[in-house]
Amino acid sequence: MKGILKKALIFFGVLGPSVITTMAGNDGAGVITYSMAGASFGYAMLITLPFLTFLYAITQEMGSRVAIVSGKGLGDIIRERFGIRIATLVFILIIVANFGTLLTDFAALKLAGTMLNIPVIPLIAITILFCFLLVTFSNYEKSQKVFLTGIVFYLAYLFSAMKASPDWGSTVTHLIIPDNSIFTKGFLIASMAVLGTTITPWGQFFVQSYMKDKNVSSDRLGYAKLEAFLGAFLSNFFTYFMMVATAATLFLHKIPLTSGEQAALAIKPFVGNLASTFFAIGLINAAIIGIVIISLTSAYAFSEFFGFSGSLDDPYNKGKTFYTIFLLSMIFPALLVITPLFPLFAIVLYTQSLNGILLPIFFFFLLKIVNDKNLMGKYVNGRIYNFVAIGSTILIVIAALVTIVYGIIPNL
Amino acid sequence: MIYFSEIYNKKVFTQEGNLLGRLKDVLFLPVETPLLTKIVVDGKQNHILPINSVRKFNGKGIYLNDFAEDEQKENEISLSKNLQNQQIVDLKGSKIIRVNDVVINTTPQYAISGIDIGFRGILRWLFFGRMFEDFVRNLPLTKSSEFIPWSEIQPKELQNGRIVLKKAQEQLKKMFPEDLADDLEKTTITNALNILKVMDKEMSAKVIADLKLNYQEEVLNRFPAEKSAEILSLIDPDEAVDVLLALNSKKKNEILSKMKKDVRADLEQLLSHAKTPVGHLMTSDFLTVNSDKTVRDAIEAVKKVADDFSEIFYIYVKNKQDQLVGVINLSELLTQKPDTQLFRIMNQNLVLGRLTTPKEIVANKLLKYHLYAMPIVNENKSLLGIVSLQDISEDLLKDHTS
């Protein structure tokens, strides 16, 4: 009994980076995309979740393994192994992708503000201030506690889903048995967006940088693996409820939708005031977690690629560049979002697909690094692991290509 | 001197002018003097060639003499794998910076002279060369020194695959120009010039001020007059005068003509006294205040010049006829009531020198009266400049040792 207790304690010591990263995958952009997918395709969309969970778990596990074994972030290693030119290119890609996702997260914040009748500009300003103070003036330990506490708010979606009174049996069978509608063009694009918003370039960067900051020793690798799987499961557990909440209401009643925001707004008549309020509170929380973590990723990436001091434990003065990048990453998208003429919906759609399309590029680097014997020693990927990871990457590349083709020729 | 970014991936040609491949790496010895030993060329096959088979490096390519294939020895390490792009940690082990480029000496032999950690190192890789360097140099992006000389790096740790500095990060920023100057004097003048270019203006001015005189002369003779003028304006006037005196008169006048009016007037005055026993030791870094001014005025005046003067111990008090009538030391000034007029508190027993006063006597008087500086006056008793204990001691010590 004592043994189990001890192991549990070690596990909770390691707990953090993967769970925080995967839960942040359900950021504002995530909530909007999942709601939209559930509303458009109903329970059929749920079939994507098992595959997504599995892929999420192994990619997170690889990232945290590299961080624990090498003590380096993804940016560090790309710079060291591939040189300044490639590093700069990857940096630009991540900044563009992050910028897009941040735009969506601020849009989600704006939307939640509207749902709760909170004035938008003060809400955005206070959020930025809160995020900046949280990251700047607290250390790794404290920030981790705040992030982990934020996860509790995701229970709001569980509540919303229950109020939608879905056919629970049917939702479970749809997790395993595919529906006819999955072979349509719209379904493919929607699953690509779901994939792109769940498994993200920033998620790959963040888990590694955050794990590196945590300084976990390599005899704890087993626990980190467990954490990655737990994180992937938890994250998609809540995704499931978000999809169910809109599938059981908007899809069943055939409410036509043109945007993800509509999904969140249209849910109100079906679940009632309270559940709708919960939905909005959950969305604010999701948006804030997304904003902090994605901006942090940009800052981490800059310091890792270009060699400026960057860690959450650095005092403000020492990591000035780090915190400046962090702040700027938040301010630019926020300014765009509060501009009334900003074509929000087009940008959101574009950036979510972009994330999915960029994903194979980041997988390429991750797989090259995780299989590097010089760096990883005996902790390189096993054969089955590689087979699965490379297979999934090829699958995503094909899906991404098809999505691009559909994007270019809409009437195909 | 050459940057690694400038030779990486450049075409390598044999003596017959045939293309052998592209330069991918350089091997070197991780010791106190990090000599380059071999180059790695990647063409149809991989070639490792001894460094002495290189006839010349230039912007277009690398030209070889006769060569014999070689292989990597155990004590040699790879520049592109072990140095370029790697993290540098300080003594405490905290990650601070990354190697953005490597500075390689080409004469008298190929050796690494240091590491460029600056933003410009990155630009050199991205934009293929030094195109943007001068532009970026003038931006206020990076203030601290961006060059780490090899002498700051622990060679032993490099063999273990880590780049570790000999000092802690905080100390690195306060790296004394004097130490850098010592390093520079050991290398050739071309290398020194290139290393100075990597540093920001203030740092390079300080380093130049600390170089030996014959070295300063060489450096300034090779810099354009505008640049020399800029550097000399940043260093102490008495040191600037020493350097100017060492140059030929054409160069000297050229440099003076590029300076700002007030700096130039100061220097010219000091220069005109230079041939006298103490003239070349005088500095114009002194503060005079009229005797009817108050303590508050004087303190304000001190604050205004404190940044520009290398040291300030005394406030000299003059009357309306510009005659030196008293002196107050800084600590006395601070303890007086703000509204007191200076003539009430100044010390009227002045220890004065003239341009003709021999150095030894100046030094003796300074020591006897426990002073840090002596005012030098002309017949009218107007203050020409001051001679500090520091400067005169250095000068006498130099006479003594030479």
Q: Characteristics of this structure?
A:
heterodimer, A: 412 residues, mainly alpha, 18 helices, B: 402 residues, alpha+beta, seven-stranded mixed β-sheet, four-stranded antiparallel β-sheet, 19 helices, 21% strand, elongated
Outline the fold blueprint.
The complex is a heterodimer of chains A (412) and B (402).
Chain A: H1 2-14, H2 17-24, H3 28-41, H4 48-70, H5 74-115, H6 120-136, H7 140-150, H8 155-163, H9 168-176, H10 185-198, H11 201-214, H12 221-251, H13 260-266, H14 268-306, H15 320-338, H16 344-370, H17 373-376, H18 383-408
Helix pairs in contact in A: 2-11, 2-12, 3-5, 3-10, 3-12, 3-13, 3-14, 4-11, 4-12, 4-16, 5-6, 5-11, 5-14, 5-15, 5-16, 6-14, 6-15, 8-12, 8-14, 10-16, 10-18, 11-14, 14-15, 16-18
Chain B: E1 2-3, H1 4-7, E2 11-13, E3 19-28, E4 36-42, E5 46-50, E6 54-57, E7 61-64, E8 77-78, H2 79-82, E9 87-89, E10 95-98, E11 101-105, E12 111-116, H3 119-126, H4 133-137, E13 147-149, H5 155-159, E14 163-164, H6 169-173, H7 177-186, H8 189-198, H9 201-210, H10 213-222, H11 225-234, H12 237-246, H13 249-257, H14 261-272, E15 287-290, H15 295-306, E16 314-318, E17 324-329, H16 330-335, H17 342-345, H18 359-368, E18 373-377, E19 383-388, H19 389-401
Parallel strand pairs in B: 2-7, 9-14, 15-16
Antiparallel strand pairs in B: 1-11, 2-3, 3-4, 3-8, 4-5, 6-7, 9-10, 11-12, 12-13, 16-17, 18-19
Helix pairs in contact in B: 7-9, 10-12, 11-13, 12-14, 18-19
